[in-house]
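stage 2 :: seqdesign
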C-alpha cells in the first residue's frame, strides 16, 4: 500500500513539474489506484475479508447506509482479518459473540446477515464458490417465520386439537433449541393468560417448594370474587 501511495505522489509531482506550476495537478484516489493495481493480481485468491471490502466499494450499493457503517466497523475487528475461504458459520457466530457480548440475538443476527451479503458478493466475483453463511441465514429466516406463525395462531380464541398440538410441539422444540421467546408462548398456550400478564411474570412469583405459580391474575380474580360477595377489596 505504501508503494501505491508513493507512486501516486510521484505522478502528482511529475505532473506539477511538467506544467511548471501553471495548473493544479489532478487529484488521484489512493483507493481507486489500489483497486486498479490489485484487483487483477488478487482475483480468486484467499484474501482477508477486509481486503475484499476495500477492493469492492460497490458493496455499499447492496446495504443500507446504517448497515454499511456497521460493516465498516466490523472490518476493523478481528473478523476483518479472517480470510474469505476460512470464514464459516461457526467461526462467524463465535467471533460475533466474542466481540459483542452485550448485544441482543437480533443485533447479532443483523451483523451475521451483513457478513452474509459480503460473502455473496465474494462468490459473485469469484473469490469463493459458495457462501457458508447462507444455510444458517435460511434457518434464521425460517425461525422468524415460524415464530410469526405461532404468534398468529395464538391470536385465535379457540384452537382445534390439531392446531393446539402443532403449536405446542413447535414451541417446545424451539425452546429446547434455546429460543427462549417460546417460553412465553408455552405459558400462554397452557394457562390461557393474556400476553401482558405473562410478560409481567417474575421468578419471585414461583414457589419452587410447592410447584405453584402465583400471578397478578390470581389477585384480580380474588378481588372480583370479593366484590361479587359484597365484601369489597
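stage 2 :: out
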Amino acid at each position: 500500500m505504501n508503494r501505491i501511495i508513493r507512486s501516486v505522489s510521484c505522478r502528482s509531482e511529475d505532473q506539477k513539474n511538467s506544467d511548471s506550476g501553471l495548473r493544479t495537478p489532478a487529484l488521484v484516489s489512493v483507493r481507486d489506484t489500489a483497486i486498479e493495481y490489485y484487483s487483477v493480481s488478487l482475483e480468486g485468491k484467499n484474501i482477508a475479508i477486509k481486503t475484499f471490502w476495500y477492493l469492492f466499494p460497490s458493496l455499499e450499493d447492496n446495504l443500507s447506509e446504517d448497515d454499511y457503517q456497521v460493516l465498516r466497523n466490523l472490518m476493523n475487528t478481528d473478523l476483518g482479518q479472517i480470510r474469505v475461504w476460512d470464514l464459516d458459520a461457526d467461526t462467524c457466530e463465535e467471533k460475533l459473540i466474542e466481540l459483542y457480548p452485550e448485544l441482543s440475538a437480533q443485533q447479532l443476527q443483523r451483523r451475521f446477515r451483513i457478513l452474509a451479503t459480503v460473502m455473496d458478493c465474494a462468490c459473485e466475483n469469484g473469490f469463493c464458490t459458495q457462501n457458508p453463511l447462507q444455510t444458517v441465514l435460511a434457518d434464521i429466516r425460517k425461525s422468524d417465520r415460524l415464530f410469526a406463525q405461532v404468534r398468529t395462531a395464538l391470536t385465535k380464541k379457540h384452537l382445534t386439537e390439531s392446531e393446539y398440538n402443532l403449536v405446542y410441539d413447535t414451541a417446545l422444540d424451539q425452546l429446547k433449541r434455546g429460543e427462549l421467546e417460546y417460553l412465553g408462548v408455552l405459558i400462554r398456550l397452557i394457562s390461557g393468560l393474556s400476553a401482558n400478564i405473562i410478560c409481567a411474570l417474575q421468578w419471585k412469583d414461583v414457589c419452587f417448594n410447592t410447584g405453584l405459580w402465583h400471578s397478578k391474575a390470581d389477585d384480580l380474580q380474588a378481588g372480583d370474587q370479593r366484590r361479587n360477595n359484597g365484601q369489597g377489596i
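stage 3 :: structure notes
- Residues 36 and 146 are 46 Å apart (CA to CA).
- The chain has eleven helices and two strands.
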